[in-house]
Amino acid sequence: HVQLGESGGGSVRPGGSLRLSCVVSGYSSHSRCMDWFRQAPGKGLERVSTIYSDGSNTYYSDSVRGRFTISRNNAKNTVYLQMNSLKSEDTALYYCASGPYVGSRLAYWGQGTQVTVS
Fold first, then answer.
1. Over the chain, what HEC string results?
2. pLDDT more than 90, % of the chain
3. pLDDT per residue over 79-91, tens digit each?
């Protein structure tokens, strides 16, 4: 049974930092890209960041590039998102995701962790 579990969300002031973690179980995530998505109230799902299976390449959306850093520890089946210089517009429910695509959507998703910047 595949499970992705996010943690590390919370409420911070603008300019603050948070570090999100996502622990994967029941799935060989080390051979796959891992993604962080977010969904703000009343908005669609946004892909925030991606990291290759070996960590050699990363992707960031324009809205977070230079402030967020994605990393992974395959030995711990964990992916991280270090978020610095947080802004009110970063307020959202953050999800980690991975797996093959099923249609247009990744197969495996966590339940999300709330980040509130105010």
1. CCEEEEECCEEECCCCCEEEEEEEECCCHHHCCEEEEEECCCCCEEEEEEECCCCCCEEECCCCCCCEEEEEEHHHCEEEEEECCCCHHHCEEEEEEEEEEECCEEEEECCCEEEEEC
2. 84
3. 999 999 999 999 9
